[in-house]
Design goal:
5-stranded parallel sheet, 20 strands, 33% helix, 607 residues, alpha/beta, single chain
Length: 607
Amino acid sequence: MTTSHEQTEPGAAPLPPAKPHPALSAALPDGTIPSIVARLAAHLKEQGGGPVSPPALALGIFERVGSNWLSDSLRGTMPQHNEPFRQQLGREHPLSPGNRVPPSLQGTGLTGLGWHHLLGALSDLHGKPRHLVKETNLFFATDTVLGMLPDSPAVILTRAPIGIASSFARGRLWDRWRYSDRYAQVAATARAPRWRTVFAPLLPQDDPDPATALGRLIVVNSLLLARALFDGDEPSRRPRLVIPYEQHVSDPGRTEAGLTQFLGIEMPEPAGASPNAAGATAAADTTFATIGRKETLVAELAPGVVDLVSAAVEKTVAQARQQLDPEVTETVTQWLAGDDQYELHEPVLRPSHRVRAQPAPQRTAKPAYRPVGRSQWRNLLVTNTEMAELLTMLHAGGAVNSRLGTNLLVCPMPHERGGRLHYDPVDRRWRVSRGYESHPAYWVTWIGAAVAAAWFGARLPSRAEALDATKGARAYNSGYVVGDSCPVMEPGLVDREIHHLIGNVQFWCGDGPALPEAQSLQRYLFGAAWNTPSTEDAISAVRSRYLLGSSRGVGVRLVRDPQTTDAARLGAWELAHLLNQWVDAVNESARTTPGELDRLLISSIGL
């Protein structure tokens, strides 16, 4: 993707050329999965400090199979990555499950920035202790993603189809998550040359009713997952553990014992809801909350819906048996068993719909800085409105956010999936979901946070500063008490006080762990968010991510010192110019180490 560099401010110095790194020439990815695996192995070896573990994969046969419970239960023991491929890649990225995935990544137009991002993302998943990567509904990206992580053990999360359908019905997820569009996209992908012989007959483009379409999608995603776990006629050597949702509900002790044995860990004590959230309202939308625990298996579906889902599943599996290896179809049949364990109830009318009501307009105080230790902390987290204004100005300066699916500054998730920042291509502006203007921006990369700091004439706090500043602080919004972010002004505090010093969102730090020069840089995350616990141990836990990573629970907190004031602000067009220069350098420097490229960005923005 080309960008315009014509609109720049005077004095924006060109970046120094990146120096080639001869040791990398033999390990450059050529677009094939083996070359990516080889390059990643070389990159991890360059890091030093002893071997790191490949991540454990939590792979759902579909959504609503208990993956949120699993990841939150293990949060105290294993660093978490929530759907880094399905959520954090733009649809145009060749690895995105929303794209038509080719047999390899050759010929896709993926630029140097794309390769830099991919290597940083894959490296970020490896570590000590072992990390957990949760992915659901990868569909036709499944074998590509698993192929890049060949040594990762897999926890397979299954659930009977009517249980999934019941969860969809209760939360009205088919409409809220636009699954009719999802069916159309997956059905279109099934007709690509690589897939059409086996999968096109399983996903007819016949405008099916939601229950039938859901049953077909459940089977197809399960088939693609089972198929990717087998190598020819023999099962792959990837260790795997199957956890049926029904077993988790009826016998949680057995589930936890099997999980801890498989992963070689101890199950941490449940963090529960934050004890510091007095006065916070109860969660209105519990779609992603895991603080409740079910003890019975009940499916609230009309009899006709049950029949449609069951018929679609049975017919699709029967069609698959004509084309796929018997081991694959038998595995899927086992995964989809369990309908008979559910009590069938008529749907119960729920006036609230479990849908979060649009918040009323909120008064927002004027941003100000208050002394904390040796620095000045801004009283408010950076809001969606502020971030949208910056993104619009950067776009006008030629710095587009997404480069072939690699998101540079923010991850623009759909509103139904928790995204609040959206680009309007007609007006060429970034907009905020109505009612969330005064909420903190999240899904922000470290680069986006650092650019925002430079634009505001501020900087990001160091981890040491954050530890010192937050001693004794209490979270108003954490542990799913509210169910989402809330406005940046915390009830009960005056304007100039520091609002949500802990809670609402975690924030990026300006420093990170010391890593070998060749390795992609990482920066610390700190604090507690609306969807994480706010215990002292959880707040102070050491967490870091690569510069292009993002999360629904991580935003921007700004600080100042005598060197960072309004006089030090960089204009949006100057920042756009510097960002584009860096992207050009990355695209032209195939043999430069990821660490050198990251340091080039940091030095160019003066961070």
